[in-house]
Amino acid sequence: MSIRIVAGDELTAQDVYDIWKIRDAVFAVEQQCDEEDVDGRDLLPTMTHLWFADEDGPTSYLRSYVEDGVRHIGRVCTRKDQRRKGLSGALMQECHRLWGDETIVLNAQAYLEDWYGRYGYVRSGENYMEAGIDHVPMTRTPKDL
User: Would the pTM of this model clear 0.85, i.e. be above it?
Assistant: First the structure.
């Protein structure tokens, strides 16, 4: 299974549908987030989408972008029937292959702090609520590795 890597302005209509479908299933249905997922960033040329897919669509997904000179990773999710196969970890590793010489920040759901820690991310602030879910800001800098 290969990783698809597509800039926001190069997504097809089918890509957008598939991406929003997995994010809707994970964030809206499973986690019952109380904020809209669509934030106006997905179609920007500065957005990079990475995902694995099978015949039913994306199995694991994340997106990355630079804002104010800082690389961000977000919307990390894996379809329920595909979990515990290392897919999200492989996507994280691909991000580090592409941008590992940059500082990368993310807002982790708090229960995943240790999981992100395995990839070199460290807490960079206090917990806070986002979309009705406890989060923690985390940062990975090249010097932390």
Answer: yes
